[in-house]
Design brief:
Blueprint (H helix, E strand, L loop, with lengths): L7 E3 L3 H6 L6 E6 L21 H14 E11 L3 E2 L2 E2 L2 H12 L2 E11 L13 E8 L10 E3 L9 E5 L5 E5 L6 E3 L3 E5 L20 H11 L5 E4 L6 H8 L3 E5 L3 H14 L4
Parallel strand pairs: 1-14, 2-3, 2-13, 6-12, 13-14
Antiparallel strand pairs: 3-7, 4-5, 6-7, 8-11, 9-10
């Protein structure tokens, strides 16, 4: 029987960490892998040797093994531009996850509310994909709400189109002011906007704390185990603690582990 300590970050390759995990160990993974050699992450990453297709295929396959039946993986990914073409790596990763057995439960968009990178021949790039992968039917779904665009009154209705082309009338609930959120999530990004922790910005590529928080709330319950195979500055672990979840992280760069541990220590321990 494989065993491992939880609520800590392992300073190692995530494949080594997952090798310690028994089958169906993790409730939820929230992570953002390296993007097409866009950054070297303190010289801990050389895509030609360490982050090619062979590696992310192994990682996704292993994530399937350690994810519980009904558990999910949130895979936040983008694409580089090489020789004038977007790589499409994010799509290939999602399709490979399907081959490994995952369901593509939702394809979501993370829209950045920040100054975009200028491009001379393309529109400004302001989003990344958030692929929500499930092992079977999701066991936990706590969909977040947003204020409705409209407030229906008595007897108001609309129509929807059936598969045969006919229409059917829909009736809205009286006074329903909130509805399930859209799957395009917009977050403030940039210095002191993605996080209020100055230490977090010692890492070159953090994602917003609210992004990790909202996915953790959506796809897990208190005391569940949340994993991040690319822990980086520790955002997933911090948000897991603040939402009363357990966590495990993998991070190959010792400097980043220290940054993450500082942030974790600042918010205490699991209640």
């Amino acid at each position: 029987m494989k065993t491992m300590e939880t609520n800590q970050i392992y300073n190692e390759n995530c494949l080594d960490t997952m090798a310690k995990m028994p089958d169906e160990f993790v409730d939820l993974t929230v992570t953002s892998p390296p993007y097409d050699n866009l950054r070297t992450y303190g010289n801990s990453l050389d895509c030609s040797d360490k982050w090619g297709d062979h590696l992310w295929k192994l990682i996704i396959k292993e994530l399937y093994r350690v994810t519980k039946q009904g558990g999910l993986v949130v895979w936040v990914a983008g694409d580089g531009v090489i020789k004038g073409s977007e790589t499409g790596t994010s799509f290939r990763q999602a399709l490979w996850a399907l081959e490994c057995g995952f369901n593509l439960h939702d394809t979501m968009i993370y829209q950045k509310n920040s100054y975009p990178f200028p491009m001379s021949t393309r529109y400004y790039q302001v989003f990344e994909y958030m692929f929500v992968l499930s092992r079977g039917k999701p066991l936990t779904v706590n969909l977040l709400k947003q204020e409705g665009v409209w407030k229906q009154k008595n007897k108001q209705s609309a129509t929807t189109r059936n598969t045969d082309g006919t229409t059917a009338r829909l009736k809205y609930e009286t006074g329903k002011d909130f509805r399930t959120k859209d799957n395009i999530w917009k977050f403030n990004t940039g210095y002191m906007r993605s996080s209020k922790d100055k230490d977090s910005f010692k890492h070159p590529a953090i994602f917003p704390e609210q992004l990790a928080h909202d996915h953790i709330i959506s796809w897990s319950n208190e005391y569940d185990l949340v994993y991040d195979p690319f822990m980086g500055s520790g955002t997933t672990a911090k948000m897991a603690i603040l939402t009363n979840r357990n966590y495990v992280g993998s991070e190959i760069n010792e400097k980043y582990v220290q940054i993450a541990q500082t942030r974790i220590d600042s918010v205490g321990v699991l209640l």
